[in-house]
Amino acid sequence: MSCERCGFIHNCVCEAKPLVESPFELVLLYHPNELRRATNTGKLLASCLTQVSQYEWSRTAPPVELLERIKQHDNARLLFPSENSAPLEGALSTNSLYIVLDATWQEAKKMLNKSPWLQELAQVHLDSASDSNYSLRRNQEAGNLCTFEVGSAILAVHEETSSADKLNRFFQHYLKVFQADRSGHTLN
């Protein structure tokens, strides 16, 4: 029988899951396909980090509540690497609202291209010095981080190193548990 909260059968991670205070607001905008994937890390991040809001993206009906939040916020930024994006390190403020597209890279590009309201946002990117440790999906390009790692990296940029380290340690454990559970094994 699987745990009702984490969904794992052989290795529950609920007791190991940290809850980290965030100095910024984070919005996870999910592609509809991403919500159905067992390998999604956005929902995991939302359960470990305070000040996270979650919305489902729709090409024809943008989330009204999110549009209002963006309109009322001075420092709303889309975290998306592009020719127009600036390094996040140079765009820090104490009152930041970061919007992260939680999707495959192909889906995220589609979300941006089909959403004029997203295109209007200032774009920032992470200067990631490390490769992703995320191993649950194939065809990962070097330098691309999963959503959970993005949340941890934003904390590190905001000099919340202890909190970023807590998330990173938990995520390493989570990845081991996921692989073991998928194979029907318990971790010792």
UniProtKB/TrEMBL annotation:
Assigned EC number: 2.5.1.25
Report which residue ranges the record marks as coiled coil.
none
Any single GO molecular-function term of the entry would be: tRNA-uridine aminocarboxypropyltransferase activity
Instruction: Recite the UniProt keywords alphabetically.
Output: S-adenosyl-L-methionine, Transferase, tRNA processing
A Pfam family it matches: DTW
GO annotation, biological process: tRNA processing
Residue ranges constituting the DTW domain according to the UniProt record? 1-183
Name the domain of life this protein comes from. Bacteria
The answer to whether keyword S-adenosyl-L-methionine applies is yes
Q: What PANTHER family does this protein map onto?
A: TRNA-URIDINE AMINOCARBOXYPROPYLTRANSFERASE (PTHR21392:SF1), TRNA-URIDINE AMINOCARBOXYPROPYLTRANSFERASE 2 (PTHR21392)
Q: What is this protein called?
A: tRNA-uridine aminocarboxypropyltransferase
